[in-house]
Design goal:
425 residues, 9 helices, Rossmann fold
Length: 425
């Protein structure tokens, strides 16, 4: 009997060992989402100054009303991320409503962008969201000027290579119909010289324009378009051109930049957003700057949802946008997107589709999803080429080795993309 009891105990231990085998996954891979619990050790957050989450899922908007944490009875703060992130890596920070009031470390320094730790999915019940606890040592205390910037939305001074001018425009879509924002227009060297007074230039319209020429506080990086273009134009590899950055509308970005269908209950209004671009942005640029007319001289571009808008704009308005730069196209609404491409009467005459080989992340567990994103980029490019009857010399697919879904990756690929779209003659 003693032998049998010992054997039974051994079997029980073995079975328990198998049952407890951890299954470590990234929270972004869980379709049910996750919960963040935040402890504010500084005591600076209160009902009048709640904590906001700003990150890669909301355009790094530091005062997004949809990303406010809720106060709890235990004095901590909480936010539930219900949306399915499809495994795309999340980077984020917390603020008290502006980048002048971002979280700091215990010594008063800005912290690197936060990422999520792995969680043990084997310990979760079906549909249960993991709870991740975070502590914030302190927040930046704004001075009077930075508080004015936060409240009035005054643009910071841009540190750029070359000349960037601002142009105020009003309107938008998806809740941004009453928004006033400034376009940021980069001009090639020599634009204002008397000898170039009659010279006209090609133009590239880019979505998420606030990240093109200067790094925004709290955002991982910038595109560095001003430095890249200056170098390539000086080297005689790219034709001098004008770049028009169209900033997003903060909390309205997802609706305004989602051109087709809906996602997780958010109805896209990007078609109206493109009508606004055609009605408000393009005519103003044509009147104010010496841009060449014709689709062969006009490009549209962007990354992530901005890439979705570039795809839509170049297929819905090919008579205006004859070239397109489509970076890191989200893998959502795939069937609707493919149907739109195939049903388009015409698309851009030249285009680039870019994607990172590590788009979702660099962890070995991300390998399958990274392959899916690379395959998606190739599928979209082939469909666009077939729809418009293009040859292989009319488009490029650029897969960035090791690139993930962020501004640094898009900056890495921009030079090759722009050299293909606007080569020096």
């Amino acid at each position: 009997m003693r032998v049998l009891a010992s054997f039974a105990l051994l079997v029980s231990c073995v079975l328990h060992s198998f049952a407890s085998e951890p299954e470590m996954v990234r929270p972004e891979e869980l379709p049910q989402g996750f919960v963040l619990i935040v402890k504010d050790n500084s005591g600076q957050a209160d009902k009048d100054n709640p904590i906001y989450m700003a990150g890669s899922i909301n355009g790094w908007n530091p005062s997004d009303e949809e990303m406010i944490l809720s106060g709890r009875s235990d004095t901590r703060w909480q936010i539930v991320i219900e949306r399915d992130l499809h495994g795309v890596g999340l980077e984020f920070k917390f603020t008290l409503g502006g980048w002048d009031r971002e979280e700091l470390d215990g010594e008063g320094n800005a912290i690197p962008n936060r990422t999520l730790p792995l969680v043990d999915a084997s310990k979760l019940a079906d549909g249960e969201r993991p709870v991740i606890e975070i502590e914030i040592p302190q927040f930046r205390i704004p001075v009077a000027l930075s508080e004015q910037v936060r409240q009035q939305g005054i643009y910071r001074e841009l540190q750029v290579t070359g000349t960037v001018r601002r142009m105020e425009v009003r309107g938008g879509a998806g809740g941004a119909e009453a928004v006033t924002r400034d376009l940021q227009i980069w001009l090639p060297e020599g634009y204002d010289l008397p000898e170039n007074a009659d010279r006209q230039y090609p133009v590239l319209y880019m979505f998420d324009g606030q990240n093109l020429f200067s790094q925004m506080q709290g955002v991982p990086a910038e595109w560095g378009i001003d430095e890249t273009l200056t170098e390539l134009i000086d080297a005689g590899r790219v034709e001098p051109l004008i770049v028009v950055g169209i900033p997003h509308a903060g909390e309205h970005r997802i609706r305004e930049f989602m051109p087709i269908g809906s996602y997780k209950g958010i109805e896209g209004d990007g078609a109206a957003g493109m009508r606004w671009v055609m009605r408000e942005v393009v005519p103003k640029i044509n009147r104010a700057f010496r841009v060449k007319s014709g689709p062969e001289f006009t490009a549209i571009g962007g990354a992530s949802l901005g890439g979705a808008m570039a795809l839509y704009g170049s297929t819905a308005y090919p008579e205006t946008f004859g070239k397109a730069l489509i970076e890191s196209l989200p893998m959502i609404q795939k069937d609707i997107t493919m149907e739109h491409i195939r049903s388009a009467k015409q698309g851009p005459g030249m285009f680039v589709v870019g994607m990172g080989s590590s788009e979702v992340g660099t962890d070995p567990s991300d390998a399958d999803k990274n392959k899916q994103y690379v395959g998606w980029a190739r599928q979209v490019a082939r469909a666009m080429a077939d729809s418009s009857g293009l040859s292989s010399s009319d488009y490029e697919i650029i897969i960035g080795d090791g690139d993930v879904h962020n501004e640094s990756a898009w900056a890495n690929r921009f030079g090759e993309s722009i050299e293909f779209l606007f080569p020096a003659k």
